[in-house]
Design goal:
Blueprint: H1 7-18, H2 30-39, H3 45-58, H4 62-67, H5 70-77, H6 84-99, H7 108-111, H8 119-130, H9 139-149, H10 160-171, H11 177-190, H12 208-212, E1 228-239, E2 242-247, E3 258-259, E4 261-264, H13 269-276, E5 285-290, E6 294-297, E7 301-312, H14 314-323, E8 327-330, H15 331-336, H16 341-349
Parallel strand pairs: 1-7
Antiparallel strand pairs: 1-2, 1-4, 2-3, 2-8, 5-7, 6-7
The structure holds iron/sulfur cluster (SF4).
């Protein structure tokens, strides 16, 4: 304890004075708070804010989100990536609306049972909305706590979270657990960031890392994520301003979103067209253009994509819709479908917005 103030008091003072003015911080209603936590799981605040606003405008209550069509929910999420988040969000909204009569669970142990909710999100909602003193641990908290308290446990190991939770459980404010948790996250995001601003930090004089010059080596993280490289050859089939797209049903990236006919693998242009000729008579198609290469990075995958634009006759278009899962869409209909960011980028590059 320094100057008669506990760590929690100093942190909450800092948070109260410096916190960013964000709309979900003006409420203790669990629905908007839960929505913000799911959106911000893999997304920066400035990027996530317009999505949170669109969702709150389209679905002001959890029951309205529960009753929405899946395509509409996916379309609103378009561009945010990590689509399992939005599928779990929709599933949980239906569960709360139908099984819990619209009442969001109010304790950590019940909130964590919801689909798509892990220890971090459950602790955030329980503390912010229901004043339960459960510490949150996200990437920002790992960094700040590892440095300030001098915790050298490897954060890529699964058991390490418990070590941090135990340290923070002794520090968290019983009266203001939500402010404490948000202060931890905010301080880690803005001051004790990957390039820490120690000269402006009020915790400098009792910070373990500052005293020992270990800011750069904390937190300890040894595990590296394995990244797979994939090659996508998209065949953009069109006729009279109608495009063929299909819904991705397979258990793979972007399940539930719409994309074009896909030939996967590192192939020569001739090989892609040969693959296509198994489905379409070469005399019936005209290759208009092969795009430049598009690169798209996901958490565990690096995708390199080419787009082959083919003009086909109306009758080919029609027979493909009968023989495959492809369906024909006008430009306007296509723009309204939920699509991976990679497809949106390609269409925008073509001036189709
Ligand atoms: S002194 Fe530096 S390392 Fe320590 S808590 Fe402050 S910003 Fe982080």
């Amino acid at each position: 304890m320094i100057e008669g103030k506990t760590f929690a008091e100093r942190l909450i003072n800092w948070y109260t004075e410096r916190k960013r003015d964000l709309p979900w911080r003006k409420t203790q209603d669990p629905y908007p708070v839960w929505l913000s936590e799911i959106i911000l799981q893999q997304t920066r605040v400035d990027q996530g804010m317009p999505y949170w606003e669109s969702f709150m405008t389209a679905f002001p209550t959890i029951v309205e989100l529960a009753n929405a069509e899946e395509d509409r929910v996916l379309r609103l999420w378009q561009g945010l990536g990590y689509y399992s988040r939005v599928r779990n969000l929709h599933y949980t909204a239906k569960y709360v609306a139908n099984e819990l009569k619209g009442n969001f669970p109010s304790t950590y142990s019940d909130i964590i049972k919801l689909k798509g909710v892990g220890p971090y999100t459950a602790a955030a909602i329980a503390s912010i909305c229901f004043k339960e003193p459960t510490p949150v641990v996200d990437g920002n908290v790992f960094r700040f706590a590892a440095r300030y308290f001098g915790i050298a446990a490897d954060i890529s190991k699964s058991g390490t979270r418990k070590i941090f939770e135990n340290v923070l459980a002794k520090e968290i404010s019983e009266d203001h657990p939500g402010e404490f948790n948000q202060g931890m996250m905010e301080f880690g995001a803005t001051v004790c960031s990957p390039s820490p601003q120690c000269s402006d930090c009020e915790f400098q004089f009792d910070c373990h890392a500052f005293a020992n010059h270990t800011q750069k080596s904390l937190p300890v993280k040894t595990g590296k994520t394995k990244v797979t490289k994939r090659y996508f050859n998209y065949i953009v089939l069109k006729s009279n301003a109608h495009f063929l797209l299909k819904k991705r049903e397979e258990k793979d990236v972007w399940s539930g979103l719409f994309d074009f006919f896909l030939v996967e693998g590192e192939r020569w242009e001739e090989e892609v067209l040969a693959e296509l000729s198994k489905h379409i008579d070469p005399a019936e198609m005209t290759l208009m253009e092969v795009s430049e290469s598009f690169k798209h990075i996901l958490s565990h995958q690096k995708i390199e994509a080419l787009f082959f634009e083919l003009e086909v006759s109306d009758s080919v278009l029609e027979s493909l819709t009968q023989m495959t899962t492809l369906k024909a869409y006008s430009v306007e209909e296509m723009l309204n479908l939920p699509k991976p960011k990679l497809i949106v980028n390609y269409l925008q590059r073509k001036g189709i917005k």
